[in-house]
Amino acid sequence: MSKQNKSLPTSFLIVFAKFVWKSLWLAMMSQLAPSEKGSYQRPSSQFRHQINGDNNIYTSEVDRYCLYVGISCPWAHRTLMVRVLKGLENVIDVNIVIPSVNQGGWEMQKISENCHNLRQLYQLSQPDYKGRCTVPVLWDKKTKTIVNNESAEIIVILNNQFNEYAKNPDLNLYPDEFKSEIDSWNEKIYHHVNNGVYRCGFAQTQEAYEEACLGLFTVLDEIEAHLTHNRYLCNHQLTLADIRLFTTLIRFDAVYYTLFKCSLRSIESYPNLSRYMKDIDTLAGVKQTYDLKVIKKDYFGNLFPLNPSGIIPL
After folding, report:
1. Tens digits of residue pLDDT in 14-33
2. Which domains does the chain show, CATH number per domain?
């Protein structure tokens, strides 16, 4: 019998390889992105304390707090933007963590609090902690505890609680007269855009993907129309809603369009969204809060289930 006749049929090898890869992919995705019926479900943040609240356990002081952030993370990026716009660079420190594809977590760029990774920092704050270790983290150097790890709340804290030390105390990104409008935009943008791109990229069924993708572009279309007669989401006032949207938009064409299959349209094809994004990008200090080369490297190089080759597109 010839060697060719002894080999397994090509069709069998293909079917078997597809079965093995999909099984492994689903197993990896279950750890990376918890889902319900194939739709990505983002876990809730566990540390939700306030500055100048909680019986004044945490009070506003210079050089008491620091932010642990990953440069590629859009949620952490929000906190860096508010920090620089408010002028809090000399008030709140920043520690950088980097993703480790093999460890499946965030590693310290430099050892901090005698910790080599973010999990050790979480366990320093709460020794019995078993949950996910995410960025950003607002850390209290005095009590060695996590104040808050919910980005939406951290940016409100940075906007409100350190004005006596801020270089730009008069800048209010969450003014009372726009709070209801800001909250309304935040709710819609969080579900369909900020988390929507992840719901596209981490979807485990075609149905879940299409639902998320169509929802994403429906809201982008709505924002595009709204920006026809408005500089920002709330008329001509820059707010936290704009910060929360910008950190997704700046990553969209470079990462989400391809890696997360958000491919109906690029942001570049939206004239008003493009103008809006560039407008915010030119604000003082904003360009220093992110690095697109690092962002692409981290997403394409570390999200192994989505890009097993690890090849980073030009």
Report:
1. 888 888 877 777 777 776 77
2. 54-160 (3.40.30.10), 176-283 (1.20.1050.10)
